[in-house]
């Protein structure tokens, strides 16, 4: 039997990735410190790797495909094929950013003030590229972690750190002076696997289901019965991906109405629908939403 070698990110993206796969219909079990999770699809062979290394192993062909950040693809200058943009950060509408930050009381106001200074970061190549673009010469050193503490202790003049909202940086009394790059989670493959018909078909299936699971996040379906005389009033209240589905019931002069909406909208909409004459209102969760 043919196998698709799939890299799953170990670390900060691991939990979110496994949850998205589960909503997409794949059950993944990670046992202790094992780097080889179990999955309920015999055609997939998953491996856990650090997101920072993923694009390199995919590009080299050791893996057919994998999940990693666009930032690490950029950092490693990897020539990989992106199959899907998977936005499942804590705030799903927010891209994570690598930002240049300095202590609140620092005299540094812009990237131009970093000439001759020292910067610590995990994304050394990305940072060096940004400095070259801005014609700034500074010493960029690799940091294994606790980067905020290094600038707070005066070991470096600035840091380039990953953030969603900037709250962690503010808590460490750091001030953002610029954004280096933005990043989302990517489902990637290499050119050889992409050209293989069987692997391409399997990866397209996974991609579609993952994107469907992400699209369904925080969305719900609503079903209700509506008397004909109240139908226009009910339809005027509804918003959905397209027009609501309206079908006939066996009882004369009654219609079944079904829509897909945001979960946050549903909690305020349902009372309005009830007052407008809707009956038998059912709210149900969605696992996947395929456009």
Structure keywords:
33% strand; alpha/beta; globular; five-stranded mixed β-sheet
Order of helices and strands: EHEEEHEHEEEHEHEHEEHHEHEEHE
Helix amount, in percent?
25-40%
Low-confidence stretches: 89-94
Q: What gap, in angstroms, lies between the N and C termini?
A: 31 Å
Question: Can you walk me through this structure?
Answer:
- The protein has 291 residues and is of the alpha/beta class.
- Helix content is 31%, strand content 33%.
- It contains ten helices and 16 strands.
- The chain has a five-stranded mixed sheet, sandwiched between helices. A five-stranded mixed sheet has the order 9-8-10-7-11.
- The longest helix is centred in the last third of the chain and has 19 residues, at 197-215.
- The protein starts with a strand and ends in a 6-residue tail after the last strand.
SSE topology sketch:
Blueprint lengths: L3 E7 L3 H10 L4 E2 L8 E2 L4 E7 H10 L4 E5 H6 L5 E6 L9 E8 L14 E4 L2 H10 L5 E4 L4 H6 L5 E6 L3 H5 L2 E10 L1 E5 L1 H5 L1 H19 L3 E9 L3 H7 L7 E4 L5 E9 H13 L3 E7 L6
Parallel strand pairs: 1-4, 1-5, 8-9, 8-10
Antiparallel strand pairs: 2-3, 5-12, 6-12, 7-10, 7-11, 13-15, 13-16, 14-15
Give a brief description.
This protein has 291 residues and is α/β, with parallel strands linked by helices. It is built from ten helices and 16 strands.
